Amino acid sequence: MPVEPAPEAGTGQEMKVGTRMTGGLSAVERGLVALGAVSGCATLLMVLLIVPDVFLRKLLSTTVPAAAELSTQLLVLLVFLGLAGAQTRGDHFTMTAAVERMPRAARRACRLVATLASLGFAAIMAWVTAMKAWTAVLREETTIGVVSLPVWPVRIAIALGFALLALQLLLQAWRALRPDGSTA
Length: 184
Prior knowledge:
Elements: H1 14-20, H2 24-60, H3 67-81, H4 83-89, H5 104-139, H6 152-177
């Protein structure tokens, strides 16, 4: 039975390969995609919060308490918890005009360098935001507004989002470094 070659990292084909793979890496990737879908639920919650707030403001000159603060926190959850899932599916934008014209080996090398650079950035951001989250927990940081909401859960979500993105980029770099593209 012939084995299809794995797509190059960053081509948007990673998820298609991940669904055919066996073992822990595809399970991790499925988990990252699922977390991204769960983060999409924040969109529904934002709609359920903002629409009544707008109607109440227009019709009764009142607002839903803490609607602005909650919708801001939901937006942060939506963005950062969806990062790794979007990377797994190949949904982040890429600039490929120059890379597409290169020979296959050069394309692969460029994509690997880009993946490793992104991994470095995501890992640094995970560390920095984890330290900020820890500080927010220790200080019991809250929002400033009519209703004070704790900030630490959202800061933890930001750090978690970057850490999971770093994990996915590490998996992609590992796959790109293997001659057969496998994860074993």
